[in-house]
Design brief:
With about 260 residues, the chain is mainly alpha-helical. Helix content is about 50%, strand content about 10%. The protein has 2 domains: about 5-120, no CATH class; about 140-245, Outer Surface Protein A, domain 3, CATH 3.90.930. The chain has a 3-stranded antiparallel β-sheet, sandwiched between helices.
Length: about 260
């Protein structure tokens, strides 16, 4: 009797290995071929449908046949780390980012861009409270957990369209995606420098806007005050849209 669990687990592994990759892994002996084929199609079609719904632009970019082949490859080689269907898209993005070759060189970035909207919509976080009268140049700042600056080599927001580029732009594509208090997820194109500024605030909260702008300028070999004037306008705009706000220990006080 002690061998029963081990045998059962071995049978389950053999069955699931075949269902994942029926072309390469033979079916366990003694199973009805018709029923096995039905299960195999159900497993594949479920994964194909879930990922297709989550990445429609990727499907359009590759075409149905190439997309199905990619999903088949993913199902055959990837071992999920979560039982939650809601996390399947995130694992797929991570898998794409680790692949040496893909059917399109922009696919991993495009998939991440498509995933971000759902991830931010589902994120369990609260918007920053209003802070009227705050001077972001003098106050210690934080970035809202519901505001993500993104930088891509490819212009991901143009892929899948009739005039989609065939190679990356010379300059990186920078976007700001945020979930507003009304629950809507919105994307906006920003400059790469603006995205870097927001990344800096998110990674190292608690400094003043002036400090962040001086650090960014020095990182780019500029004079320390080179970005203060245009940066002040950007920070005020970000504050008004609640992309940034006072750091928790600042209480909205001036630094």
């Amino acid at each position: 009797m002690t061998d029963v669990p081990a045998r059962l687990h071995a049978q389950q592994r053999a069955l699931t290995a075949h269902l994942r990759d029926p072309a390469q892994v033979p079916a366990p002996p003694g199973l009805d071929a018709r029923r096995l084929g039905l299960h195999e199609r159900l497993v594949f079609n479920n994964v194909l449908g879930l990922l297709g719904n989550g990445f429609p632009v990727c499907v359009r970019l590759l075409g149905e046949a190439a997309w199905a082949a990619l999903v088949r490859r993913y199902l055959a080689v990837h071992r999920a780390q979560t039982p939650l269907f809601t996390e399947l898209a995130a694992e797929f993005v991570q898998w794409l980012q680790g692949q040496a070759t893909l059917p399109h060189p922009a696919l991993a970035e495009l998939a991440h861009y498509e995933w971000v909207e759902t991830a931010l919509y589902q994120l369990d976080a609260s918007p920053l409270p209003p802070a009227p009268g705050l001077d972001p140049m003098r106050a210690a700042l934080q970035r809202s957990p519901l505001a993500w600056p993104l930088r891509y080599r490819w212009p991901v927001h143009r892929l899948g369209t009739d005039d989609a580029p065939t190679r990356p732009d010379p300059e990186p594509t920078a976007l700001l995606v945020r979930r507003d208090p009304d629950g809507q997820v919105r994307f906006a194109a920003v400059s790469p420098m603006a995205a870097q500024l927001l990344e800096l605030i998110g990674q190292h909260p608690g400094s003043t806007g002036t400090t962040y702008l001086q650090q960014l300028a020095q990182a780019h070999g500029m004079a320390a005050d080179a970005l203060l004037l245009p940066g002040a306008a950007l920070l005020r705009q970000c504050h008004d849209s609640r992309v940034i706000g006072p750091a928790p220990d600042a209480g909205g006080r001036s630094a």
